[in-house]
Amino acid sequence: MTQPLPDRLPHRTAGQWYADPQRRGELELATEKRIIYVADPRNPTLFVGVDRSVLPATFFEPPQPPPTPQRYGIDPRAQVLAAGGAFAAGAGWGAAQVFSAVAGFGTGGMLAFALLFLATRMPARAIRGGDTINNIKNYNRWWGRSSTHN
């Protein structure tokens, strides 16, 4: 038997639904309803009122959650081990760069020390360059003309 939905009853207005004195204080839970509206098997857009005792017990059970998807790709533990190996290789390469820089600094430091030692042992005249003084004068003019005089 098909019954109209409660909001479709013609003899009550919306204000009468909220101010109904006979229904005040009552609370009807969804699990206590005698008539349950389910989709019509022939036309799923329509709902049909069915007595609760007619429906099977499985109708009231919550639906099963969908199965979790299977993991694809590389095993997570293998990813961790591969990342550790990549880090170790990178750390080894970085350490080699540091050691080669230290070795190069040692060689360059020895060369700088040798040059400073030789500069302190050279006579003063050789460093100064003698008594010769050269004055060079450059004159720049308009449109790129330049002249140099001693």
Task: Describe the protein.
With 150 residues, the protein is of the alpha+beta class. Among the domains are: 6-60, no CATH class; 76-123. 37% of the residues lie in helices and 12% in strands. The chain contains three helices and four strands. The protein has helices at residues 14-18, 76-121, 124-128; strands at residues 35-39, 47-51, 137-140, 146-149. The strands form two sheets. It has a two-stranded antiparallel ribbon. The chain has a two-stranded antiparallel ribbon with strand order 3-4. A hairpin with a 7-residue loop joins β1 (35-39) and β2. The longest helix has 46 residues, at 76-121. The protein is elongated, with a radius of gyration of 49 Å. The mean pLDDT is 76.
Number of helices: 3
Task: Pick out the low-confidence regions.
Answer: none
The helix/strand class is alpha+beta
The average pLDDT score comes to 76
- Distance N terminus to C terminus? 123 Å
Proportion in helices: 25-40%
Order of helices and strands: HEEHHEE
- Measured on Cα atoms, how large is the radius of gyration? 49 Å
Query: Proportion of β residues?
Result: 5-15%
**Biggest sheet layout:** 2 strands, antiparallel
Query: Reading side by side through the largest sheet, how are the strands ordered?
Result: 1-2
Q: Based on Cα principal axes, name the global outline.
A: elongated
